[in-house]
Amino acid sequence: MFGLIGHLTSLDHAQAVARDLGYPEYADQGLDFWCSAPPQIVDNIKVTSATGQIIEGRYVESCFLPEMLAARRIKTAARKVVNAMAHAQKNGIDITALGGFSSIIFENFNLSQMRQVRNVSLEFERFTTGNTHTAYIICRQVEAAAAKLDINLSTATVAVCGATGDIGSAVCRWLTARTDIQELLLVARNQERLQSLQAELGRGTIADSLEAAVAQADIVVWVASMPKGVNIDSEILKRPCLMIDGGYPKNLDSHFNAEGVYVLKGGIVEHSLDIDWRIMNIVNMDVPARQLFACFAEAMLLEFEKWYTNFSWGRNQITLEKMDMIGQSSVRHGFRPLLQLNSPSLVSEGS
After folding, report:
1. Computed over its alpha carbons, how large is the radius of gyration of the chain?
2. b/e string for 131-152 if b means 16 or more Cβ within 10 A?
3. Which residues have C-beta within 8 Å of that of residue 25, sequence separation ≥ 6?
4. What is the rounded distance in angstroms from the CA atom of residue 160 to the CA atom of residue 220?
5. E-assigned strands of 49-174?
6. What whole-number distance in Å separates Cα of residue 137 and Cα of residue 89?
7. How many CA atoms, within 13 angstroms, populate the side-chain half-sphere of residue 304?
8. Which terminus has fewer CB within 10 Å in the chain: N or C?
9. In terms of Cα–Cα distance, which of 42, 52, 41, 53 is closest to 303?
10. Is 1 helix (H, G, I), strand (E, B) or coil?
């Protein structure tokens, strides 16, 4: 059995979803209540592979909210993640993906030191961040969406915002080794990590600023923790410009809503068959029975293959070989990268 640990995008979102899922006692509560709310299994899932194989899983709502980080309740956020992990393990789930902020919190706050959760000793091989599959899908989206927009990668400049993160560094490795892009711009806050990545890749230009990078780029891959306000004038962007939004929640289209700017939901896959679940109805998927986060799909793939291991774990451990391995499994079981582009020009053309 596979598991998915997730969370909602805001307090307002959590209150609305609680009402929809039949938890009225959660629906009108404030942040303090959610800080103390325990994890819950709120959905039972059945997935059929393109091969005909059927697996079952559970969705674990961690009750973490991004406002907890904004309010500097770091210990609360950490507790939410490890409590959800313990809940999944106690319920006999073999492999569980840490979705959204869960994996970021786990890595950034070194939660591997918190192995004991009350009477549960966490077995970390039961958990995966899903980042390898996410990085693979984003790279495939870069290649396929560029072709749809007639952006020639051999003459294109690609900026990776969040380049030193786990997913960002994997994307940079793939673009360097598997494509012929002309220029790679590296954007991140930590200059020391940027220099290390540049040395590892043997290429790439460290951008002077975010604004300078996006102004030069034909394709921008966003896999950084993005501030609420992105104050970049759309007029400085190239036309066409492909923006791949690898964050959660997906909101780049509200920041770069301009003619000739195409926004693609990064790290999202479509399954070839309907998935029996409710949970994707609440995270604004256009086709909730078929579309899902690639990190969640990684747990499904590991269950299909019976690879019960923390396939994605730690920072900067994603290799091209592991991306190939999970990518081949993804194709075999009927997953494909989402390629639905959002742009005002597409809307005006009626497509």
Report:
1. 20
2. bbbbbbbbbbbbbebbeebebe
3. none
4. 6
5. 54-61, 95-98, 116-117, 120-121, 127-128, 157-161
6. 28
7. 24
8. C
9. 53
10. coil
- Closest to 145 (Cα-Cα) out of 53, 244, 18: 244
Closest CA to 144 of 330, 293, 339: 339
Beta strands in the chain (DSSP E): 2-6, 40-48, 54-61, 95-98, 116-117, 120-121, 127-128, 157-161, 183-187, 205-206, 219-222, 241-245, 261-265, 268-271, 291-293, 335-337, 341-342
C-alpha–C-alpha distance, residues 72 and 234, integer Å = 32
Handedness of CA 1, 328, 341, 158 (dihedral sign): positive
- Of 129, 51, 132, the residue nearest 304 (C-alpha): 51
Is the CA virtual torsion 29, 45, 104, 86 positive or negative?
A: positive
How big is the CA angle at 132 (ends 127 and 136), to the nearest 5 degrees? 150
Give me the count of residues in the chain.
351
In 228-319, where does DSSP find H-type helix? 252-255, 294-305
Q: What is the pLDDT along the chain (351 residues), one digit of tens a residue?
A: 999 999 999 999 999 998 888 888 889 999 999 999 999 999 999 999 999 999 999 999 999 999 999 888 999 999 999 999 999 999 999 999 999 899 989 988 889 889 999 999 999 999 999 999 999 999 999 999 999 999 999 999 999 999 999 999 999 999 999 999 999 999 999 999 999 999 999 999 999 999 999 999 999 999 986 545 567 888 999 999 999 999 887 878 777 888 999 999 999 999 999 999 999 988 878 999 999 999 999 999 999 999 999 999 988 899 999 999 999 999 999 999 999 998 765 443 333
What number of CA atoms fall less than 13 Å from residue 134's CA on the CB side? 33
Nearest residue to 244 (alpha-carbon basis) of 228, 259, 230, 223: 223
Q: How many CA atoms lie within 13 A of 211 on its CB side?
A: 7
Residue 245's nearest CA partner among 281, 219, 208, 215 is 219
Q: Looking at this protein, which amino acid is placed at residue 245?
A: D
Whole-number Å distance between alpha carbons of 285 and 279: 10
- Angle between helices 131-148 and 166-178 in degrees, nearest 10: 50
